[in-house]
Amino acid sequence: MKPLKAKIFSYCTTNINPPGELQINQWLEENPEAEIFDVQQSESMAVHDGNLERNLTITLLYRLVEDQ
Fold it and tell me: CA-to-CA distance for 5 and 18, rounded, in angstroms?
């Protein structure tokens, strides 16, 4: 069996609703052979130039079905 792979989506934004969901859904559509084993999320916030900036990182651990 081949090792797991990781796909990392990371966004820094001052907007509370980053386009992460759309980009993750697009990646999943483009990779229908990906079998997701785990999803991890981390968030942080900081003040940058007087604005609150949000950093969201989502990591998908997956294996391609054809790799099994």
Answer: 24
The Cα–Cα gap between 3 and 57 comes to 22
In tens, the pLDDT along 11-68 reads 887 766 657 788 899 999 999 999 999 999 999 998 878 888 888 899 999 999 875 4
Total residues found in the chain within this entry: 68
The one-letter amino acid code at 34 reads A
Find the domain containing 22 and state its range: 5-63
Q: Report yes or no on 49 lying in a domain.
A: yes
- What are φ and ψ of residue 49, in 5° steps? 55, 40
For 60, other C-beta atoms within 10 Å of its C-beta total 20
